[in-house]
Every structure is written in structure tokens, then in C-alpha cells.
User: Fold these one by one.
Assistant:
Number 1:
Amino acid sequence: MAVLKLTTFPDKILKVKTREVLRVTEEERRLAKDMIETMYAERGVGLAANQVGVSKQLFVASADQVRGKEMVFLNPRIIRKQGTVKEFEGCLSVPECYEPVKRSKRVWMRAMTLEGKEVEVKADGLLARIFQHEIDHLNGFLFIDRLGLIKSRLTRRALLKRAARPRA
Ligand code: ZN
């Protein structure tokens, strides 16, 4: 297992819709393991494949941070949602940026497991937020795209300015 390097804003791979996984192979299994390792190393609660430079529809999640209980989903899509809730959100690909984001309170997601099985999962609270955040990643969106037009533009501009600053 290995901790992978994170891609961060404004890396272009984060803006591209990821590819569907037609068949789970050893490659996806290894990627998922490494992504879980990376998620824990970075103290995240979720991670999408394009955040480690792989443009595939795969994400890992661990709402309670319990080792061995993390979830891995491929080709996920939200099939039903209920309610709205606005809470602060952050992202491993957008360091040191936290903003309130409006999300559905409860979602039903259909996805494939690492065993190649189709499943339907219902999620509430933090897990529902993680699912929506990671599916956004896989579709080429960041949480800063969900802040409303003006706030979104200002946040991007500030982040770009920060990214351009020389680092020693
Ligand atoms: Zn993220």
C-alpha cells in the first residue's frame, strides 16, 4: 500500500468528468487500497480517484474514520434526494478553504462495489454530504463551484492568487 500524491486546484484533471469502470480488475483494487491509505494519511473523510490523478469513477469514504470500515464505490449516481442542509465543507484538493455548501440532507445512491456488484445505498448526515461531494469530483466539480456565482468567482480568484505565490 502507498500514500498517493494529491492533485490540487487548479489542476485540470479535477475539471474533467472521469471515465466509467466497466470491469473491476486488480488495478482498481490496488487503487482503492492506496486511496484509503491516502485518505487516512491526509485525515480526509472521502477521496475521489481524480484527486490522486486517476480519471476513473471510483471514490472511497469513511465518515467515522474507523479502519476496516471504509466504503469503496464505482460508477456512483444519486437516484433520489430529500431535503436540504447548509454546512461548512472542505476538500483535500482545495487546502485551507472552508465554506458553507448547500447539499441534500438525505440521498439514495446506486453504484458498483469492488466485487462488481450493483448496490443501492441510503445515506444521511455527513455520509450523504460525502457522497455528493465525491460524485461532484467524479463529474469534474469542486465544492467551490457550489457557492453561488459571485462567491464562487471570488473564492477561485483568491485561491489562484495563493497558488501563484512563490514557495520556498
Ligand atoms: Zn474534495
Note: The radius of gyration is 16 Å.
Number 2:
Amino acid sequence: MSKISRVCVFCGASGQGDKKYQEQAYAVGAALAQAGLAVVYGGSDTGLMGAVANGALEAKGKVIGILPEDLKTQQGWHQGLTETHITKNFFERKKLMAKLSQAFIVLPGGIGTADELFEFMTYTQLEYHDHPILIFNQDNFYDKLIEFLRHVADEKFCSHDDVNNLRVASTVEELIAALHND
Ligand code: AMP
């Protein structure tokens, strides 16, 4: 496993939910920066995505945004990032996220976040990478998803290791500690 210097964060682009989600996303960004880790993420300035970036930037961290071209023209992207990369499409974007990062964190989010979690879990299963995937289970947000994944393993559509390899943390402190849990 390579040393972790950049961490990719997947999280909701929506800011319409309870403010506690944005507050914790901001705290995660700040904690990553304070731990000396750069944040790689989807480049948006909205919702939890904007909050993670702002948390890291305000704690003097580096934030690398990766946006697919078609999305860039449609939605606001963060203007204050350390680096912004524009990719041709969503597929190229995930490839670059994977290339630049040595760990993946999944915060609360919607369908896009779930897509990213499942895609990177698939890459682990296929041994395309061995980077840790961490779930930030803020206020038990992901309990039902983890329960579903255990059901999938019980029914033998994946292994229990596929599920147990996920690192699940309930607080920001646990999350940062779990990054170095080898
Ligand atoms: P969702 O969970 O459906 O809000 O989707 C959020 C995830 O999908 C993020 O981690 C992003 O990588 C990607 N994504 C969705 N919407 C945007 C957006 N407006 N700008 C950049 N990335 C986005």
C-alpha cells in the first residue's frame, strides 16, 4: 500500500438537507488539511462538496478539483481551488481521481456518491487498486447500506471480505485515524 498524501472525497452535491451534513463535511476537509493530506474531489462549490473544499482550504490545505467538461458548463465549480483538472467525461474523471489518490472517503450523499462508492468497491474487488475506502457513517447515515451489503454477502453475491474491507468511522477523529489503520 502506497503512502497516503492525497485523499479523494465523494459526497453530496446538494446542500438542501440538514446543515449538520455540511458542518461535518467542512470538519472533514479541515481535518484532512490539518493531517497534511490534500483533498481530491469533484470540483463543485455546492452542498457537501463545497463544504469539504472550503474546510480544507481554510485550514491551508491543498484541494484538487476534477470536473468533467460537460458538467463544468452546466454547474458552478469552485473558483478557489489549488488545482482544477477538466476531463473529457465522467469515466476519465474517475480514472484521474483514482490515479491521484491513495485513499477514498465517502461522506453522506446521493446517487452520484453511491455510484462512486460502488465503482471503487468494484475496483477493489477486481484488484485494480488496494487503496482503502472509508465510509463516514455520520449519525448512522450508512447503516442501511452496510446492512444491505452484508445481505449481499450472505446471499453469496460478494464476499464478506468485500464488505469488511470498508473502514467505517462515526466521527471525524475516527475517520482520520482509520486512514492510517494498516
Ligand atoms: P450526489 O451524491 O448525487 O449529490 O453526487 C455527488 C457526487 O457525484 C460527487 O462526489 C461528485 O463527484 C459527483 N457530482 C455530482 N454533482 C456534481 C456537480 N454538480 N459537480 C461536480 N461533481 C458532481
Note: The chain has a mean pLDDT of 94.
Number 3:
Amino acid sequence: MTTIVTPTQPIDGQKPGTSGLRKKTPVFMEPGYVENFVQAIFDGIGGAEGKTFVVGGDGRYFNDKAIGTIIRMAAANGAAKLIVGQGGLLSTPAASNLIRKNKTDGGIILSASHNPGGPNADFGIKFNIPNGGPAPEKVTEAIFAATTSISEYRISDAAAPDLSVLGTSDVDGMVVQVIDSVADYAELMGELFDFDAIKALFAGGFTMCFDAMHAVTGPYAKAILEGTLGAAPGTVINGVPSPDFGGGHPDPNPVWAKELVDTMMAADAPDFGAASDGDGDRNMIMGRGQFVSPSDSLAMLTANATHAPAYAKGLSGVARSMPTSQAVDRVAADLGIECFETPTGWKFFGNLLDADRATLCGEESAGTGSNHVREKDGLWAVLLWLNILAAKGQSVAEISAAHWAKFGRNYYARHDFEAVEKAKANDLVDTLREALPGLVGQSFGPFTVAGGTNFAYTDPVDGSVSENQGLIVAFEGGSRFVIRLSGTGTEGATIRLYLESYTGPDGDLALPVDQALSEIVAVAYEMIGLTAKTGRSEPDVVT
Ligand code: VG1
Ligand code: CO
């Protein structure tokens, strides 16, 4: 077998966003597109010679072909070994665990996460560093720089091995180890949680519905929930990964996980409901007749984490992305632990977790995780909830009500405006940014502006600075809205408007969310000039 050195030219736009490089699938399928980016990853990290990587993806259309290319390129670039999930499948948190457990030099994860999959949908590739977490900005910048100066890529003409068979093979002098996609992850979960208590919960008749959304968590959820923990067969729905996620968006929110929402809102609903996304790093939590907002979930998990063995000694600190509601800040203050506010994207939590400044982290977009890996972790959040429900002997509704009665409630929603013309979206954000300093002290409806911030973050561990991470308009009394443009979309611009209205413990804690937010929504739309600048008056998705 020989290495073929293929001349190539830079391809425009191979710039990683919030979570790796995401494009339409046909773009990834263009000749040389995957090859250029994978070579740039190797070049950007100082070469692959002698290194070991984890490789796997969420099983979406083109996953198998892209992995074949990565295997042949890693061999040609002198890598020593690849650890690959069976059938090319690995959830993002499972990949993070394998990178850490095997002390590898990183991993390549193929996923566009919550974006739809298929020949005309979305695909993505991201690189994770040896701590198991998404590459920080200095690494993604080096990879991007390599894409702009690339002149050749290296690929072996050996055939990639059959990934359906467990075991070890040789590709041009490189070892390829195909491993069970679930086993190591399931073992880790067993170390973190009180599985006996959860088993007893299910044995006592507790019922649950887990919607895997035809994505990667199906096999994980079936093995752990129905296999190990004894949940009733059929607890996991849509549990077989499919290349186009059954034609849906594998995005666990009330819009796309409607099947689960309908089940949980029915008169005979199970006790607990949950869903995960394409690559298994997100979670949606529901009680009977109740949706738990991801921001509230983070706050409630933080307040109750000590019920799980892994966190029994307490948390060192907690971190949330900036647009995530401030509910967890109140819990952190009560616990007397640090609370960090980072830019959107899991890569910003890595240093805080490595330095043990934060134990739990979370994002409003249904991402929650802890120091057990360096990615957000959907099934982990579900298991932590189950552990808490089992330990406290309470329902989701009882835990929520007690939480709000103590801390007050941060009513919260995100409004997304999708496929907006880029120039219009930029103009809207630019106009608000320039107006921010003059807004302070002004009143809009019942709200008085307390502060306007163009959010920048200085990493407290390595001092790196990330600017222009979103605009915050904060009102007196703790309510606010945030606006930023998505870094994962593949079509035009997606405007994300995050709305938060705080009600103290003595206020009305049981309002429908849209009613509680109606005034701040009206004020925010007016203040950003939504209709005037974009012609839109309704969001495409509310989560
Ligand atoms: C979105 C979310 C963000 C999340 C990112 C990756 O980014 O808002 O919170 O970290 O997706 O999630 P953006 O830039 O589109 O707002 V996923 O599950 O890729 O891994
Ligand atoms: Co995801």
C-alpha cells in the first residue's frame, strides 16, 4: 500500500463555528472537501505522526464515507492508532470519554448535532483536544489557517476496514481498533450515579419515555435505561439511528420533539420524559404535564446534585453560557460557590472544568454536563435527574415548585428567526450595539434599562479574550434580553433572541411562560427594530 500525495487548493469558508465545521451535505461531498479539512486538522495540530485519535459520528448520511476517508488519511499522515466506534457510531460525550480514558491525542467527531441529516441536509466535522473537549479558539484558528494555505493532502490507497466488526486491524501500518460504541460510556455512568436507587425506582412502577429522535443515543439509552436499570421495554422510542433521523430535526425541543411532548401532556403521561439530539450531547427534560426549561434544569440539578454519588462532596463551582437564564446564579450564591458566565459553545467550559473551578456547566440550548467528560452530555443529565427523583422520592413538579418557592422563577424563552438575509441580520445587531450606551436609564413599557453590554469574556484560567459574543440589555429587577447570531446555521443568518423575566419567590410562579414573557417580548421586538429591519414579526421556532 502506498501514500498518495494529492495536490489541492484552499477551499473558501472552512472556518469552524460554534461547534466545528458545519455545511450542507452536498458541500462536504464535493471532491477534496473532507480531505482538505481533515489534512488541515492534522496540520493545525502539528501533524498526526505517531498519534492516537478517537473517531466516530452520529450516524447521519455520509458518516460512513467520511470516516473511511479519515482512516485512510490518518494512516497516510503517520498516525499510530485510531479507536473507532462500531459502525462508525459514537455519541459526542462517549467520544469525549474515550479520548480521556485512553489518553489519546484527541478525536474527530462527525456530526452536525441538532441539524437535520440527509443528502440535502447538514453535515459537520469537529476536532476535540486531548482533554476530550472541543478545540478552543486558538486551535480552531490554527486549523482554519491551515485550510487557507493547504497545497496537498495525504491519503493511503489501502481499503478502510469493515467497521461493523469489533476488533483490531492494520491499515498501512496504522492500527484501527473498532470498539463497542456503548460499553465504556455505560460503565462511566454506573460510576457516577446510584444505579441501585434508580433500579428500585423503576421496579416500584415509575414510568418514563425517552425519545432518541432516530439519532445516536438510541443504543445508549436502550442499554442503560431498559437494560441495566430495568425501565420497561418500549421506554426508549425512536431508538434506531437512521441516516436522516426519520426525516426530522434531531433537536430536543418542544417543536421538534412533539411526539414526546404529546405523550407527556396526555392524561396518562409517564412520570418522566426526556429526549436527546443528533449526537447525544443535548437533553430535554419533562415531567408529567410539564416542560422543564434547560436553564431551570441546570439550576435544579445544581441545587440537588449532592444526591448523586459523584457530586456528594459538593460542587466546586458552576458555569453557564451568557444567554442561559440567571436561575443557576441564585443557586450558586446560596451554595456559596463560584458562578461563571461564558460565551455560547461548550469549548469555553473546558478550562474551568480542567482547573476544577466548575463541576457542572450548562447552556439554554438543552446542554448540560459535568467534569466527567468535556462535552455536554444528554443521557448524563437524564440519569442525574433520575438519581435525584429516586433519592428525593418527589416528582418533577414537586421539585420545580419547591425550587421556585425558594429562589423565584426566571421565566425564559428563546425566539429564533431563521434564514434571515445576512446583511439585514448584521445591520440589526450593529444598530443595537451602537445604541447600547445610550439606553441606560431609559424606560420601555414597564422596564427601565439598567445596563447594555456587548459581551466579552476573559478566560479566568488562561487569560484568553473572546469579544463580540452577544448583546445584553438588562433591566432593573433582574429581567433581560440577549441577542446574538447563530454560529451553527448553514443557511443565511439565524437571529437568536433570548428573553428572561424574573419573578421573586412571592410572585406568581405558575404562569404560562408566554404570558409571563409577553411584555418583555413586545419591548424587545420594538427595541431591536425586528420588523423594520427584517420584515419578520413572528419567530420561526420558540424554545
Ligand atoms: C448552538 C447553541 C449552543 C450550542 C451549539 C452546539 O449554537 O446555541 O448553545 O453550544 O449550538 O450545540 P449557535 O451558535 O447556533 O447558537 V450542538 O448540540 O452542536 O453540539
Ligand atoms: Co449536539
Note: The mean pLDDT is 96.
Number 4:
Amino acid sequence: MAQKVQFTETVLRDANQSLMATRLPYADYEEILPTMDKAGYYSIECWGGATFDSCLRYLNEDPWERLRNLRKNLPNTKLQMLLRGQNLLGYKHYHDDVVQKFVELSIKNGMDILRIFDALNDFRNIRTALEVTKKAGAIASGCISYTQSPVHTVKKYVQMCKELQKMGFDTICLKDMAGTMSPNEAESLIKGIKDAVGNMPLILHTHCTTGMAYMTILKAVESGVDVIDTATSCFSGGTSQPATETLFYALQQYGIKTGLDEKIINQVNDFFKPVKQKYIDSGRINPKSMGTDAMALVYKVPGGMLSNMIANLTDMNAMDKFDAALEEIPNVRKDLGYPPLVTPLSQMVGNQAVTNVLVGERYKNISKEVKNYFKGEYGNPPAPVNAELQARILKEASMAKPLDCRVEDSRRTGEDFAKAKSALGALARSEEDVMSYICYPDQTVKFLEGRKAQEENVAAYTIEEA
Ligand code: CO
């Protein structure tokens, strides 16, 4: 039987987020959705991540309405979202009742696949979301934050995948957010994982940032990966995903079935070309995000983390400390038990390394976030942390030991949803409004007040006309 590799199209979410800070309004792509619906994608990643915040904060769009419209115009395609487990779309730990309600509403409004991850790969933080997803009959994809460190061996990743399978996830996704996975690593990882989890579909998500992605994906395909994430070619490359059409042609020549319709995927790209041009002209797409930057491979840290550090040091007129700060990163990371370098952990590690170097004494100043991390508030680190440092931080906080449960379980349970509902009062017309408010209170109030004012204006205008 011919090998089959399916595609998840990311132009509406990750490509949009990576290249243009998620500022693509729904109206810009509504017209092409019926065409995309015929492309034969495994799924379209179109919601979650930063799209929700961006809708409310910048685009004056109701994210739930966007989701319903996507559903309506993509009736035959699986809609996919990215969910940060117990953190939903941000970095706070929410109560279980909020997580449950969020997942229920997402599925009720049209979501088919929830890709669920935790920055630390602490799977206690993704269990609630998993359970509700399954109960509501949607597809739960267990997602691993990929990183490189002395403790992140193939064996460790295989164990994680077995755990996800045992928990009841339908598929597994390896999420290489920094684009640092090499072809060699992909080969041993994917072979190891496929051996361990049998028929369970395996997905690879990577970024072109360092230039590795096409080679890595080809090796992943050779090694048996089932689904790959790609973006229509004009929205591919740079900090985005590799190109849909390019990989389609490459795999087709190997006789690999993709299920994609060649004509349609090219039509999709033709549609998005002028859309992209519009945002290049307006300066929304930074040419820097379109390039290849291999620095992340040299320093083993994501590109975004490096540019953050450079910006901070430049602001403080201390670029002469850049090399020292770079050397300090692996030390801080080791002290923290090798967390994956994904937001917000990458910023925490980077900022602490810069502080250690600037102050001239290690951990004389420790950020609140790093302290909370040592108290166990982010979850279990991949490896033991620096015990001396942890003892000092716990003592200062009058804690005998770090949290040995989820943050959620250390607090009183439930009722956040009800509280938010009463706080919002008459502004809220639906549970979806309340959920937006819980996730982004200030932006949501502003958005809902705007919606109300707009309707009143329309009403007043109509009376005058009459
Ligand atoms: Co991504």
C-alpha cells in the first residue's frame, strides 16, 4: 500500500501569527474558504493561539463569531486550534470549570481538533482539556513541546508519547516551535516514536526559522510521520511553516498519497498573494521574519529569545555583555531543570541570564516568575532543579516544599465562570462573551462596549430615517 502523508494548512493561524503578528482579519480571507474546503487538507489550523487575543485587541472581531463563520464556510474540513492546556490561550492557570467551559464552547461553535500542549510537558496540565474534548466527541491531539537538552533524549520523548497514548489522546504532535529539529533528530525521534505507539497518527509541526524544516520534514516522512503542518507558499518560509505546494510536489514524485487537489492548493496560493502584498506594503510583515537565521542552531536557543536579549541589552547599553549572557543561558537552563525554551519559559531563562551577568553575581536578583517556577507553579520541570537555589527561594516564601500538585489543585476549586458572568452583567449576551472576558478582561469589556454603542447608533439612525 502506498504511503500516505496528510497536510494541515496553517495560513489562518500559525503562518498569520508568525509572519504578521496574527493581524489577518477574517474579512480578508472569507472569500477563499469555500475553495479551501475542497483542497483535501487533513485539517485547517484556524483558531486559538494568538488569534483570539488579536481579534479582540486589534481587529474588533468577536473570536467566537469568527469560529462560527469558519465552520459555516468550511463544512467539509476539520477545523483545528492550538490550546495551551490549563493556560487556555495565555499563561495563567485557570480553574478546571473555566477550562471545561472553554473547551465545550470551542467544540460547540465548530472546532473539530484540539491540539493541546503544556510548555513544560507536564501532562497534568493537559488532562482536563483532554477529558472534555473526548467527552464532547472532538479529536484530542496530545502535543509535545520539542526542545534540545542533555535530558531530552529520544528515550524521553518516546516515554512522553506512550504516556499521551495511555492518557487517551487520539493523535500525537511534535511541536518544534523554534525550528531547530534537524533531519537526523527527526529520523531517530519519529522512528522511535512510531515503534512505540503503533498505529497512532503522528504529526510534525516545525518552522522554517533556521532553514532546517524542509530537510527535517522529508526525513520525518521517510521515517513514517503521518501528518505535516505547512502553509500556502506565499505565507511560508521564514518564521512560518514550509510551503504546502512545494511539499505536495516533492512527495507526489515519491508516489506518496497526500489527498491534496493540486489545482485547488494553487488557487489558494493565488488568492493569498495579494493579501500578503498588502501587508508587506503596510509594513505589517517584517522582511526580517521572512529570512533564514541559523543563529538558533549555533546557540541552541530560539531566534525570538536571542532577538529579545539583544533588544534588552541594547536598551541597557550593555551589548558588550552579550557573549557573557549567551554563555550564561545554558547554566540558568540547567539550574531550572532544562525547561523547553518556549514562551514564557524562554523569556524567563533569557532575562535571568542577562540579570546574572549584569549584576555580576548569579541569582542576586531573581525575577518573580523564576521564583514561582522554583515553587512549582508552572509544573514539574523535565529534570531536577538546582536544589540549593530552590531551598533559598522556598525559605524566603516560607514554603516547606514546592507544590507537588497542579496550581489548580492547590487553590479553592471552581466558580470563576459564574463570578465572571456576574462581573460582566448585561454586557454579556452569551457564555462565549463571558469566556472572552475571562481570557482577556480589558479587551473584552472594550469590545463589548463598542458592540453596544455601535448597535445604539444603528438604532438611532434607523429612527431618524423613518
Ligand atoms: Co508553531
Note: The mean pLDDT is 94.
